[in-house]
Amino acid sequence: MPIKQLQYIVYASLLAALTAVGAFIPIPIGPVPIILQNLFVLLAGLLLGSRWGFTSMAVYLLVGAVGMPVFTGGKGGIAHFMGPTGGYLIGFAVCAFVTGWIAERSSGRTGWDIAAVIAGSLLVYACGVPWLKAVTAMTWTKAVMVGMLPFLMGDAIKAVMAVMLARAVRPMLQRQLQTVSA
Questions:
Q1: Closest listed residue to residue 5, CA positions, set 51, 64, 70, 74
Q2: CB atoms inside a 10 Å sphere around CB 99
Q3: Which of 2, 30, 83, 132 could lock onto 147 through a cystine, CB 3.0 to 4.6 A?
Q4: How many other β-carbons are positioned within 10 Å of the β-carbon of residue 177?
């Protein structure tokens, strides 16, 4: 196995683990605590690109599906994919892929990173809100009011943090990958 591929496996695993840790870190601000999962989902896409960002979140979801307590509140198991949060969980993989896809084309430009995290964050809602509506039989208005609006401010803060962290970490990551390739 090439060293560079091994490095990406390690980085993808690290971001999957950080996503799990983020599920345990509630920051009590406003009506809904900010959970840091989405921060690491966005970072996976920004730092690893579409393929490895998606892989990172697939690993996270697989670990949770087999029962490891990596989801919010220390929960795990396949049943969470059938419950009200299942769409959001699947949205994490979609988010990391699309965020990474945009970031790969951005050459590290901040404006494109911002577009990437906005698109990725909206895709989490695009997967989560309809699933929430379907599973709970809520109206569209109620599903949006419960499953999106209370989280927008926190997700905006996490998106800004993800862009800032990516700008700081990306040069080190690229140097590390180039050192091994040389």
A1: 51
A2: 34
A3: 132
A4: 15
Tell me which DSSP letter residue 151 carries.
G
Element (H, E) at 34: strand 34-35
Q: Domain ranges for the chain, please list them.
A: 3-177
Q: Where are the alpha helices (DSSP H) in the chain?
A: 3-22, 37-65, 79-82, 86-104, 110-136, 140-147, 152-181
The fold of the 3-177 domain, in CATH, is Arp2/3 complex 21 kDa subunit ARPC3 (1.10.1760)
* C-alpha–C-alpha distance, residues 127 and 121, integer Å: 10
Give pTM, 2 decimals.
0.93
Q: How far apart are CA 118 and CA 160, in angstroms?
A: 10
How many residues in the chain?
A: 182
pLDDT digits (tens, 9 = 90+) for 18-73: 999 999 988 888 778 899 999 999 999 999 999 999 999 999 999 999 999 999 98
